[in-house]
Amino acid sequence: MLVVSSLLPRFSRLGPRILFDWPVYNEKRSMKSPKDQQVEERLTEVECLLMHLQKTLSDLNEVVIEQSKSIAKLQRECKQLASDFRQVRESSAPARRAEDEIPPHY
What letters, b where the CB count within 10 A reaches 16 and e where it falls short, cover 21-58? Predict the structure, then answer.
């Protein structure tokens, strides 16, 4: 409709009836060639595929973020357990006295 309204002043003597009867400006008719329709269908398929891929990427990104948080938590817990184990081992080890040591020449 925008094309028609912009052309009306130049073709005012033809009137809107003739202008709308031209197949190029008739909105009800499809002036697309079969090749253009095929290209449009393929483009639509590609756009749908892109939407699915974006959704999949978003879902995978959320999974990676959750796993990253889980890994960080497990690393903190592992460090804490290692620290606790060292403390328990050091506190439970018997204190060595100099007289309990075996002389080096034995």
Answer: eeeebeeeeeeeeeeeeeeeeeeeeeeeeeeeeeeeee
Rounded to a whole number of angstroms, the distance between the first and last alpha carbons of the chain is 109
Which residue type, as a one-letter code, is found at position 40? E
Prediction pTM value: 0.50
Over 70: is that where the pLDDT of 84 sits? yes
Does 24 or 1 have the greater pLDDT score? 24
Length of the chain: 106
What lies within 8 Å, CB to CB, of 32 at 6+ separation is: 40
Same domain, 23 and 44: no
Q: Are residues 44 and 72 in the same domain?
A: yes
How far apart, in whole angstroms, are the C-alpha atoms of residue 8 and residue 22?
13
Q: Are 47 and 81 members of one domain?
A: yes
How far, in whole angstroms, is CA 46 from its chain's centroid?
A: 17
Same domain, residue pair 51 and 36: yes
